[in-house]
Amino acid sequence: MASMETLVAFGLISGIIMAGFIGEIMFRRLGVPGVLLLLALGYMLGPVTHQLDVNMLKGIEYIVGPLALAILLFEGGMDLNIYRLVHESGRGILMAVLMMLTAMLATAGIWMALGYDPIMGAILGAIVGGTTSTIIIAIAGKIGISEKAKQFLVIESALTDVLTVVITIALLNVVLTGTASVQGTGKELVSSFSIGAVVGAVLGLIWIAMSKKLQGISFSYMLTVAILLFAYLVTEYFGASGAIAALAFGVMLGNHKEIATMLKFKDAAETHNMFRFQSEISFLVRTFYFVFMGTLVAITAMMPVLLGLAIMAGLIVARFASSKLATFRSDLSQYVKQINIMMPRGLATAVMGSYPAFMLLQSQGAIPADVFEPLYAQALLFVDVSFVVIVVSVVLTAAGLVFIRVNGNGNGEKKEGEEAEGEGKESEEGGEAADEGEETEAEDAEGEGDPEEGGEGEGKKEVKAGGDRKPDAGNRKLKKGG
Length: 482
Hints:
By secondary structure, the protein is mainly α. The protein has helices at about 5-30, 35-50, 55-60, 60-80, 80-85, 90-115, 120-130, 135-140, 145-175, 180-215, 220-235, 240-255, 255-265, 270-295, 305-325, 335-340, 345-360, 370-405, 410-420, 435-445; strands at about 450-455, 460-465, 470. It has a single domain (about 60-410), classed as Up-down Bundle (Na+/H+ antiporter like fold), CATH 1.20.1530. Strands 1-2-3 form a 3-stranded antiparallel β-sheet, with helices on one face. The longest helix has about 40 residues, at about 370-405. The relative contact order is 0.13. Mean pLDDT is about 80; it is low at about 410-480.
């Protein structure tokens, strides 16, 4: 018979997976992201009820963090369509870059105001600066925006997932090496990232070349995961960025058709099953990591909460400014309200929130004690602040979705305002035939049998609606025969 500890462990694993599933259902039905449920569950199991040994979980963070990071970037790479990214997504890329830069500036400013290290503040800004593609992709089509605007949001979130990791690692290298020269840092980054990119790309090419032969073999996806972890291992062993290797490997597999066509590979196989399995693995990683993060949070004072709220306020201002600039003189500008609402943080913020403290602890012997201690104390704050930012950003996004559902997508309000201003006048503007047709049908349905002919010309009509007379927008012919 199994011991009580085994039964408790099985019960916790089962309960966490069920909570993740319930969170997905809750998200699809109510529009409330399940990350809130998972973080709350982790917080209850750890700091509140002590059902999970927090010290033991901190001991396995060196495995959980990099594993989640590799899976996150692999999925992010698979979701990046290179052709679309290069040819169709200029404004989405601009939004991602502007958002990260303004978030880093805002957070570094707040960090400096508190007397902390500005580079650590910039690192925290990179960690919390990007939106999560997991939530954005699921809700972008439900907020009354065009396909172009949806693509804008998806590209922004997919790219900021990657930028969050890349910029955090880059700035953290500056802190760990103690060199802030542009030339030295640039050389180190180029070397680290290029080695990772080459390793990931080469292994990706080998996978594409062998994909047809692998397609008929059971468990080929497990081989893909093994290659992913091998790429991370080899790259890190040689002192380069394993995260970039995972990203490059994902980009190669996600764009395998285009690459196979370009290189004239004849044995490239379809990857539909791999995408399906990847989504299942990503679900497990997201579910357990959010619970894991909830257990690590140790908010015993108001300082992290207030700091998180202040940084979230700075991020909101940064998003408003970035969206204005990124959509300037574009048809996307009409969707600025919806774009601003889409601000949820997710797995990238959760994973990278604990990464600086982990890396500083790994490099403790190479850093003078008087330098290490204040940096490590600030890095420990990152976990709690990231937790607050994730929760507040998700709550604000959910509230924004409710607002949109109750009040419409904003474009309808603008239309009504224009009609109100023109009440009692004849509008002579054209070019909105589709909208006018819908209005005509609505007016015919409401006031059928009650049209009044205008005195200035045939075809103009007014309809009584609650005693008010609203002139129609244009010289339309009545759809009603006779």
